Amino acid sequence: MTVNTPSAVSLVVEDGVAILTFDLPGESVNKFSPAVIEAFTAVLAHIDADPAVQAAVLISGKPGTFIAGADIDQFLTFTSADDAAKASAFGHAMFDRIESGRVPVVVAVDGACLGGGLEFSLACAYRIAADSPKTVFALPEVKLGLIPGAGGTQRLPHRVGLTAALDMILTGKNVRAKKALQLGLVDEMVHPGILRATAIARARALAAGTIPRRRDTRRRSIGSRLLEDTPVGRAIVLSQARKTALAKSGGHYPALPAAIDAVHAAYRDRAAGFATEARLFGALAMSPVCRELMFLFYATTLLKKEPGLPAGATALPVTRLGVLGTGFMGAGIAAVSAQQGLAVRFKDTAWDRVGQGIKAVRDVLNEGLKRRHITRVQFADQMSLVSGTVDYTGFGRLPLVIEAVFEDLAVKHKVVQEVEAVLPPTAVLATNTSTIPIARIAEASARPERVVGMHFFSPVHKMPLLEVIVTPQTLPDVAATAVEVGKKLGKTVIVVQDAPGFYVNRILAPYIAEAGRLLDDGVSIEALDRAMRGFGFPVGPITLIDEVGLDVATKSGGIMSAAFPERILASAALEKVTASGRLGRKGKQGFYAYDARGKRTGVDASVYALFRAGDARTNLSAETIVDRLALAMVNEAVRCLEDGIIRSARDGDIGAVFGIGFPPFRGGPFRHIDAVGAAEVVRRLEALAAAHGGGPYTPAPLLRRMAAEGTTFYPKTGKPV
After folding, report:
1. What is the pLDDT of residues 303-358, one digit of tens each?
2. Which amino acids are annotated catalytic?
3. Which alpha helices (H) appear in 536-676, and where do they start and end?
4. What is the pTM of this model?
5. For strand 492-497 and strand 465-470, is the pairing parallel, antiparallel, or unpaired?
6. Distance from C-alpha of 2 to C-alpha of 19, rounded to nearest angstrom
7. What CATH number does the domain located at 505-709 have?
8. 320-498: which CATH topology?
9. Can you tell me the distance from the alpha carbon of 92 to that of 37, in angstroms, rounded to the nearest whole number?
10. Helices (H), 81-151
């Protein structure tokens, strides 16, 4: 029997088993919206009232994806915390009906089961996962500044245990099918080819009573039981979770403590626990942090659809590429390429360097093997995609080559001329330079229109951003090829115009330069780093210099200072410490001290003697330090928008957040200006300019106009982008 429904849920009844297929029309993934929930509620009521139906199976009609979670567009309709709390309660009612209804429901999960999809599954009587790399489970709500709002914080702890539930909820990380089975998150894992048949068989077993609807499939040690099954043990776990969350977040993300509170409530009265989840979800949904994280979600989603390329631009098909230079950056590019199934041909000047590069690739891939993100077979397959050479053998048919050699114009010119002599004329030549203008590098090219910048960030396998830099000569198809390859490598890609430092390094330059000038003024290393971590950066500016390398930071700073001498001012402290031979972490000595393994052990007090006489210290408030550094950065970001380096505030915010760790909960430089107010930002900049002689603090003309007109970069209502 088939039942036609006016929604995304179709229903077929086969010998007493109702098979529900979720296939949301016009969408690439299945999502829960109020309309979809109403449709599900109607179908569930129908099968519950039909005595011919003894059990049900839910399966997705979309290959490779189960349910992606809630349709977050509905969050934009909330006008109060109460609205959001009611939406949470609405989801509770639907899933309660599944959990307590007459008809047991089996979910057959093939693909991503996220957010509300996992919460739906937790309410069902039986869960089966397809043994596929695409099958993952997660509650990623914290990444939007929220907590699970449809029962996730209440049901998950009882399904997988307190510790595992907190780990999933507080990190939002993916759990693969095999791990889900080990945790007890799913009851069974089968080959995708028998998923549907197995689900139907288990539904019949549930209806017959040969499988109980309530069972604990967790594999738990005695120690785990002592911690999780007693109030004292749970109090210890929850207390440690609070300490860890605070240390990692700096207290900037209220969803983390709220999630712990909600999970704690799961061990109290059931009704009170669900009410706690709804109340906390409602409060978080209206918070500024949620608003900014929601913006980043919308912005990155839109960027994938509209990367900023000319109409009609067509990317070349790229299944293999070349990488020139086997150093840290070259090896990182090769590793992420192999991870995505692209064959890579390495080239360096000596076999020992080629060998070191391949070893570096192996180290990156081995990390995934150790974390069980890939199997040994997948590891071997990925390594087999990487080969090396000391000449240009194998480069004659490559559609794309990425140059990642030493940051020296003469060296890059030599490499460009050599590789172009063997590449096909249709090939794209990309350069991974971080500061040198692409047009300067293209001066050595016989085909400058086929030269483009692909600026990866270090470490390549962890940093999500890629800047694709185009010159006035770069062909649209060349830019499109770079963008598509970047997306295939899993990067968030922004297209920027050619100029010294491009966008990300240009806004970073005054930030680092002013940190150096504050050292010149006597502010301590600890005070600078502590203030900017307090603002929300993952590390402070002096730590960043040590991580990048003092030699690299100083050279980059010199290039940027020469390009913008009126705004990026030299620091005597940075120059003297670099001149002393200190390199930072890679040399195990910089502003900080390091042990033999390269682990930081604290500020190296001896560094002060290199640039400051005596023990005189200048004590500045954290607020003053933040203003001097953050406002120098956001002011330069506005100038980049004025100069056309970036095409929109959106791209500028994405670049800053994903490229240099601008605090995500602030949304990015332009979102931060909107939040503070352009007039207030101008007032603070003018005060700093008066005190410190202008430089990076002279407000950008666009910022002055916005202050005078009371305008913002983003709309004040509706979608944030």
Report:
1. 988 888 888 899 999 999 999 999 989 999 999 999 999 999 999 999 999 999 99
2. 467
3. 541-548, 550-563, 572-579, 622-642, 649-660, 669-676
4. 0.91
5. parallel
6. 10
7. 1.10.1040.50
8. Rossmann fold (3.40.50)
9. 11
10. 81-100, 116-123
